[in-house]
Amino acid sequence: GSPLGARGDFGATAALEAGIGRRLPPDVRLELLGAWRPDMDFKGDANFLRTPGAQPVGAAASSLSALAVAYYDFGHLGRARPFLGAGAGVARNRLGPVRYRFPALAPGAQTTAPGGAHSAFAWMAGAGVAWRLSPRTTLDVAYRHTDLGRVRSREAEALVVRASGTRTITVAATEAKQATDGISLGLRWGF
Question: What is the pTM (predicted TM-score) of this model?
Answer without folding.
Answer: 0.88
